Amino acid sequence: MTLNPEQIAAYDRDGFLVLEHFVDQSACDSLRAGAEELVRDFDPAGAVSIFSTHEQTRTSDDYFLESGDKIRFFFEENAFLPDGSLRQTKERSINKIGHALHDLDPVFDFFSRTAELKQLVSDLGIVDPLLLQSMYIFKQPRIGGEVTCHQDATFLFTEPLRMVGVWFALEDAGVDNGCLWAIPGGHKLGLKSRFLRSEGSGTRFEVFDDTPWPEEKLQPLEVKKGTLIVLHGLLPHLSRGNRSPKSRHAYTLHVIDASAQYPKDNWLQRSTEMPLRGFQLQHVAE
pLDDT tens per residue, the chain (286 residues)? Predict the structure, then answer.
């Protein structure tokens, strides 16, 4: 599909675009099955890393920092009992899988590198696309963690800013089970902070503007399975915790332009053995 002028104008105005029926039901189910297989084969012994947006610098361990060219698993903040055991099964405790699914798993490679997606990012001005990172997000029933208001460019900065995020609803997403919320036009407020690797080890935030987000302007983006939400790199957005009995599976992918500089102090880095690549499919043996 090609974006029409009205859609491009809406994206420029709001900082996001909702595209219904972008992927079919079978493609959503295939990706879910792929994620379930990865979790089934994952042994959490000795690899417990918790995803939290409340204390990110504290929870930025080496397992997280070295995930830019790997497939790694991150638990929900409320997944564990005081004695360290899981409250629920492993399958119901994972927050997300990241961050190189699109390069290391054939199911995710195929889903992430379609002609339709290549056309979409081209229409949005990404001339020489490189697929930077991917995440499979579970938003588990009852314990699905909150993601506080943020801009993707805080974490995946380029100079100049040439980056777009795409968020696929693999299940219906509503207010009850933790859909996205966004501030329309908030991408025009400028970049508030960057999330950086600290010298030596760990991470830190470099804050440019500490004024609070105008969260009273947040609007829920309730969507059906198969919908794609396009997110500007500067768009303020969040998702609430999921306390419902329903999960809210989603897949996100971030694409940058090769013409932009990707700083070495961004938290997400890759080894030279796995350079970023564009939309060319690559068979990966299982």
Answer: 799 999 999 999 999 999 999 999 999 999 999 999 999 999 877 666 555 554 544 445 888 999 999 999 998 888 888 877 788 888 998 999 999 999 999 999 999 999 999 999 999 999 999 999 999 999 999 999 999 999 999 999 999 999 999 999 999 999 999 999 999 999 999 999 999 999 888 899 999 999 999 999 999 999 999 999 999 999 999 999 999 999 999 999 999 999 999 999 999 999 999 999 999 998 544 4
* CA 193 – CA 204 distance, rounded (Å): 10
Token output for 18:
């909702």
Element (H, E) at 257: strand 250-257
For residue 99, give both structure tokens: 């961050």
**Which residues, at least 6 apart from 242, have a Cβ–Cβ distance to it below 8 Å?**
139, 140, 141, 142, 143, 144, 177, 178, 248
What sign has the CA pseudo-torsion 29, 146, 133, 257? positive
The whole-angstrom separation of Cα 39 and Cα 43 is 8
CB 103 within 8 A of CB 112: no
Q: How far is residue 258's CA from residue 193's CA, in Å, rounded to a whole number? A: 23
Q: List, edge to edge, every strand of the sheet that includes 16-19.
A: 16-19, 228-232, 163-169, 250-257, 129-137, 94-99, 71-75
Q: Look at the block and give the residue holding tokens 């564990």.
A: 80
Structure tokens belonging to residue 96: 């997300």
Distance in angstroms (rounded) separating the CA atoms of residues 22 and 1:
9
